[in-house]
Design a protein that fits this description.
By secondary structure, this protein is an alpha+beta fold. It is built from 14 helices and 17 strands. It folds into four domains: about 150 residues, Immunoglobulin-like; about 220 residues, Rhopdopsin 7-helix transmembrane proteins, CATH 1.20.1070; about 80 residues, Helix Hairpins; about 140 residues, Heat Shock Protein 90 (2-Layer Sandwich), CATH 3.30.565.10.
Amino acid sequence: MKHLFILLSLLFFQVFVHAGDTRYRIDTAYHHDEAPTRSIEAAQYLAFKPYSGDLRLGFAKGETWIRLRIQTDALSEGALPTMPAAPLVLRVGPYYLDDVVFYAPQKGHWFVQQGGDRHVKQRQNCSDDLYCFSLGALEGNTVTVYLRVQTDGVRVVQTSVMPAEEVMTAAMTRINRMTVSLTLAIALLVLSLAFLFLERSLLLHVFCWFQLSVVFAIAATTGVLAQWLPFFTAETVNDLSNLVQVIRVAMTVLLGWAALKSCSPAPAYQYAVVTMMGVCGINFFWLLTGHADWALKTNFGVLWLNSLVQLMGVLSGRNFPPKLRMILLTGWSIFLFFSTLGVFASLGFLGGRDHMGLFQSIGDWRLNGVPIGIVVFWVVATEKSNRKIQKLQELQGLQIEAAQSKAHQEKLHERRELIDMLTHELKTPLGTIKFALASLKRAAKSQGESLERVQHIDASVNRMDAMIEHVALSNKIERHDAHDSAETISAQELMNVVMQEYRDVQRFELSIQEGTFFHADPHFLALIVENLVSNAVKYASDGKIKITIENQTPAMTCFRISNRVADESLPDENRLFERYYRHPNFQNHPGMGIGLSLVHSAAAKMGATVSYQKADQEVIFEVRIPC
């Protein structure tokens, strides 16, 4: 914030810079048309229109004649009488005027002096960026002089009269102001480059190019560029100045796009940005082909329109970081305000407010990039702060997830330990009960009723024992890594072992592709196949079970088993692999509803997939096992 405050203070210092007021009264009037060049003799009889302050004609072609009536005896209230006539100097600006011809009466003749940026190499200019014309010691209280001005682009003419001995002081004051402006622009460029090394931001990258164009624009409009490039002609330097103005507007468009790129603005905004960049490219081409008037006029329009387009992008954008929308709305609204006033001032609509200093015209050397720089640094600082907050929130989220995961793992460990303990503690008494039941069976063989009761008890104990085995197996699946114990297993040999459990092999229709192998954990693979076969045996309505094993691809082996099921006994697909789920029609049948859950868990551990489908009263389970 300290740096932004300093930049803001410098901005206001630059905005409120004024030129010193003259002590001489000057009545100014002008005549403009697009007629061929007139002589001074003909120009004296033209119809001149009075104006005050700076003359602003906007984009005007042809020549402009300015008449200045200088009164040397005009006294301000309470002032002392003027000393005897001293040599006077007429100062004319701004620098980018192409041709300025000065006519002053001298002993019955017109004394002619040449100025303008196309003649700086032939004629010594003032020490600053203005053009100085000698009036000499005026004869009489009033003298009338003329200026003929021709220039491309915006036509703005500034005039002031002062004694010759004060010219150097005024020039040094103006040079100091220009130096401050250029130094501030260069400092801002260096600062942005330093930030770019620290913060790799697209917005900062574009701003560096923008600020570079600002530095060259200030140098061009103050005459410094001509000093930097002494081997170039005045026309070439003037063309470079115009090119820099177009590049600066194009960089302003790109700055707005870079700030909104990640905020998903409306498609219309994207099209508008592309269109404006295309127009800037056309302006560049026009300048290269000698159509500076068209290019500079269009450049004015793009500069003003860009503010509206950027505001549209801000209003239509989404996913803004906190405060960024407000920052951009404020920045572009201020830019729209100043650019509008600047355009109006340059075109002559606000000539009566020339000395208020509340706005600046386009091409003014005081436009050194500070306003946009403040917004850019603000946006970059805000984005960096938001990224830090987001990273902190992500870190906190990861810490919370890690803590929750640790707590979950601890609970799983406790549950597994409990299951291991329960299975061990329950297996021991069940083994004792089974041993005692075996003795009771032998003793009760002669008593039919007692034997039947013993057999019921034995069946219940066996079911409880099987349940404990399944729970222990489920616990083992969760802890076991099936990938580390994978083996190559023959499909034919596996099914031979599984089929030994069943006496009625006629119920099965086996179709095993020759040479088919599984590459899997043998215990998990056996668990999957045995449970699917057992499930089919329990629920097949007509007793027929089809089993197919084949290599679908060189990297995938498929095990498929199907059987017919009555419509009223079809399982709920959404709950099929839930632990302990059983169809209501089979609640009284043997089983615990844990088999398919074990199949699903074991397949997931192996990296296999289990799918279920039904077709024509058949249910089909398919297991795809990667080789």
